[in-house]
Design goal:
- The chain has 198 residues and is of the alpha+beta class.
- It has helices at 2-10, 56-75, 79-97, 159-166, 180-191, and strands spanning 40-47, 102-108, 111-114, 117-120, 124-132, 135-142, 149-153.
- It has a domain at 54-98.
- 34% of the residues lie in helices and 23% in strands.
- The strands form two sheets. Strands 1-2-3-4 form a four-stranded antiparallel beta sheet, with helices on one face.
- The longest helix is centred in the first third of the chain and has 20 residues, at 56-75.
- The relative contact order is 0.13.
Length: 198
């Protein structure tokens, strides 16, 4: 027994490997190893973000509020803040006038794909649904601090269909407590609307 062990220890390593391993053209035969097959479970196209066209009244009210804030900041010589307010108003204008282009979304057996960005299930935390501007939105939390949440517009896809597929991979949150900022935005929108709904 001891003699057999000595033979194994003394034998050179290359004798235990196939003779082709050292050559440059060697490719291992992977047919004996089980491979995970990537399956597409759901695929759809929808706008990249919820969008609702705003009226002229909305932009006029934003312009008036901006001018009032600019006058106050000018009186206190806060020129950097004046530029910041103007930049934010321009951003709001751009987001509410330019419609988003369609994104391609895909749910696979390995993870979630948004355009050319792929997120593994191990990188994702949970999911829930919300309604924004009349569109149903799937929100998927990420374990990493950035991006924090993925927002996917479902378009014509049914919410139940998506939920049934995602439940195999992620926990589902039926209720999500709104944050302080969300509560404040809802209160402002309700009490001081920038446009009258038709």
């Amino acid at each position: 027994m001891e003699q057999d062990r000595k033979i194994l220890i003394d034998s050179p390593q290359e004798e235990l490997l196939p003779e082709h391993v050292g050559s440059e053209n060697y490719t291992p035969d992977l047919s004996e190893y089980p491979m995970h097959e990537l399956k597409t479970l759901l695929a759809w196209s929808a706008p990249g973000r919820p969008f609702e066209k705003k009226s002229k009244e909305y932009f006029l009210n934003i312009l008036i509020i901006m001018l009032l804030i600019e006058v106050i900041l000018f009186l206190f010589s806060q020129y950097v803040l004046m530029a910041l307010v103007m930049a934010l108003v321009f951003l709001v204008y751009a987001l509410n006038t330019v419609a988003p282009h369609d994104f391609h979304y895909k749910v696979t057996s390995e993870g979630l794909m948004v355009e050319d960005h792929f997120f593994l299930w191990q990188e994702l935390y949970d999911f829930y649904f919300k309604t924004q501007y009349g569109s149903t939105v799937l929100v998927v939390g990420t374990k990493a601090w950035y991006p924090g949440e993925l927002t996917l517009v479902l378009g014509s896809l049914h919410q139940g269909q998506v939920r049934d597929v995602l439940l195999h991979f992620l926990p589902y949150r039926e209720y999500v407590k709104p944050t302080f900022l969300e509560k404040s935005a809802t209160w402002m929108e309700k009490n001081f609307p920038l446009e009258h709904s038709v």
